[in-house]
Amino acid sequence: MSTVNIPRLDLNTYINGSAEEKKQFSDAIGKAFNETGFVTITNHGLSKELIDKLYEQVKALFALPEETKLQYEVPELAGQRGYTGKNKETAKGFKVPDLKEFWQIGQFLPDDAPEKASYPDNMQVKELPDFNTITEEVYKKLEAAGKHLLRAIAVYLGLSENYFDDKVEHGNSILRTLHYFPITDPDSLPDDAVRAGAHEDINLITLLIGASADGLELLTRDNTWFPVTAFGEDLVVNVGDMLQRLTNNKLKSTTHRVVNPPREQMKNSRFSVPFFLHPKSGMDLTCLPSTIDANHPKMYEDITAGEYLDERLREIGLKK
Ligand SMILES: O=C(O)CCC(=O)C(=O)O
Ligand SMILES: [Fe+2]
């Protein structure tokens, strides 16, 4: 059986630690990302109070009447801002859409930022003013935590510590608040309908705020499913396809899914909040030369982050 190495790492030991502690953190995250693609992170800068307030607002959002939520669904935005209703996103290679609805929030930029024109504006939930302020705070805190994690990863890769800094500054990151809705009649579902079909994330890294219920699983190297559980308010952090591509598969974008609960619990909602950390669209994802050698031939064509994102949004049905 292959080992499933999901270490629990303290981000504060990287941000404020000694040189030795920083090195230990970099080594541990790099090793886990090389083997399993997942870690859990404590001391990430989001308090329990903030996370509790976030979930309160997320629950209130999805409890709004269907016709209210649908006012915030704009097909031209390909799900990247505002609401995406039930039966819209289908994992790559699946025929049946995931059993979920979600709301996405993008970058917050000063008016004079050059990237401002290239991102759609965020949508404000008029009915829930606190939803807007709390998700903005969460977005900024997760972005800050993600920047520190990328520094630790850069060191592991033998790059300068600040390698990713300017690439993710004002980047195209997305905070997704997710509702896996209740199913009152499981018999009515197609056989292969699941909360989230097996997939890999598109972005550099994903920071997931502990879900309200079990269900997240990762696919191990020997092709078995392994449950991912986070302790308390820990974040689950995993590698996405952009980082896997950049590192020519040295870091693994591990396949994961969200399984349905036992039948009698299908009537209960599940909520979760992933933050997909994206770079600016101009970032070059060409495999790093240091990751290519005789045993590791170059596996991917050169592409920018923006081109790659477009390709992937088409595949999952969000972009036409
Ligand atoms: O809901 C979860 O626990 C994970 C969600 C996920 O993998 C995704 O939205 O990409
Ligand atoms: Fe995912």
TrEMBL record:
Residues 170-279 form the Fe2OG dioxygenase domain. SUPFAM superfamilies: Clavaminate synthase-like (SSF51197). One of its GO terms (biological process) is ethylene biosynthetic process. Belongs to the iron/ascorbate-dependent oxidoreductase family. It holds the Pfam family DIOX_N. Keywords: Ethylene biosynthesis, Iron, Metal-binding, Oxidoreductase. This is 2-oxoglutarate-dependent ethylene/succinate-forming enzyme. Signal peptide: none annotated. It comes from Mucilaginibacter terrenus.
